[in-house]
Specification:
The protein is of the alpha+beta class. Strands 1, 2, 5, 6, 7, 10, 11, 12, 13 and 14 form a ten-stranded mixed sheet that branches. A hairpin with a 2-residue loop joins strand 6 and strand 7. The protein is built from 15 helices and 15 strands. It has three domains: 292 residues, no CATH class; 111 residues, no CATH class; 59 residues, Orthogonal Bundle (Arc Repressor Mutant, subunit A). The chain is 39% helix and 19% strand. The model has no long low-confidence stretch (mean pLDDT 91).
Length: 489
Amino acid sequence: MSDTMTTYEVVIGLEVHCELGTASKMFCSCSTTFGGEPNTQTCPVCLGEPGSLPVPNRKAIEYTMMIGLALGCDIASHSLFHRKNYFYPDMPKNYQISQYDLPLCVGGHLDVEVDGEQTVVGITRVHLEEDTGKSLHVGPTGRIHEAKYSLVDYNRAGIALVEIVSEPDIRSAAQAQRYLVELRSILEALGVSDVRMEEGSMRCDANVSLRLPGGEYGTRVEIKNLNSVRSLGRAVAFEVERQTKLLDGGERPVQETRHFDEGAGVTKTLRSKEEAFDYRYFPEPDLLPIEPSTDWVEGLRSALPELPRARRERIAARHGLTPEQGALIGGSLAWTGYFEQVIGAGSSAREAAVWMAGELARALNTAGLGIEETRISPSQLAGLIGLVAAGTINLNTAKKVFQKAFEAGEDPKAIVDREGLAQVSDEGAIASAIDEMLAANAAEVERFRAGEEKVLGFLVGQAMKALKGKGNPSLVNEILRNKLTGSSS
């Protein structure tokens, strides 16, 4: 952006949809197993056949209340399901059973931290609904306007879905991403969903607008169905830039729903934005109100597991980790479990944290993998850390071995043994190599003895080179300095 552009305040609110991990759908007994043959997990209820009646899933209601409690929401003493009416091929009933003006959970907040600054993001509501089916548009891009024909799979129709709506308290793409990561961690800790965004069990809509600092809210644009944290960040960043250019050009953004094109990295118009009255909400006549008792709510509250923030703080305090290490290792159950297994296999907590936050995190990010898909096991990482601690290999060699082990899925120790990478710690062998190196670098030796201390680094490098990078660094430094200064070891 140029210096002449007006500075606007970014206003973002997120609507996160998460499929709950119940064994059966929200209003029928059909299976929720992912990946079944199309249209094999359906029945008259989820297909909306005449005469079929919905029966609410108690576990889904409990899961929703647990989410609300974890976010500090008030649990409503009286909540209703409504019919949200609209026609679309993936809606077999031509309406969706959802909650409108009387949701199950209201209020609450989620605290997010970016670059050391904490922001409290308000939670407007947490409500239950049923998911829709899945449309497959067969064509070159998978978008409906370029499709030759479309197919619909109703296996997902009727799966219990929770929607978590934030207040417009988010002010940057980075905050939006952090909010989604933290919320996903909470849902995972609660055990209410597998939160696999790549499988569609968790997805996000972002409402983005710009305004003059402290001014009236601008025109809100909704970006639909963002299926990864990275996509959320890219979509919001593009939309902020697009709206900035419009406003600086004297135009106002149009209230609409937009789609994020992953390949092009841009948002595109999908449809004009519907208002609530367009859906013709009315109370679902086939379902009774939900009126959870105080005992039911308090029983769920007392059974809540340790939440991510508390887990991060506990792990960091117990093991003396940095805040960054604690945030990574305590950020998910998978990272925490891996860390604990590395320690259990004999590594110190400090070294385990250093390697996980460094080499392991970088390797996973580069490969686009999650910790669950790592190609080096906790026991293998602990073994590699042990080789360094024992002086068998030095740190630089260990990092190279780690990369090879990660890429090949091989035991680091086997690589060390096969390639003869064990560190040279024999003082006689090191001294002999240093003597030859000093004889070949007489000029640099004289410079060091004349007071040029910085030459020592060069000589250390030459010594390590002579030892093919396998010299014990502490011994190399000690023996080299003794020889240069005439000290006895």
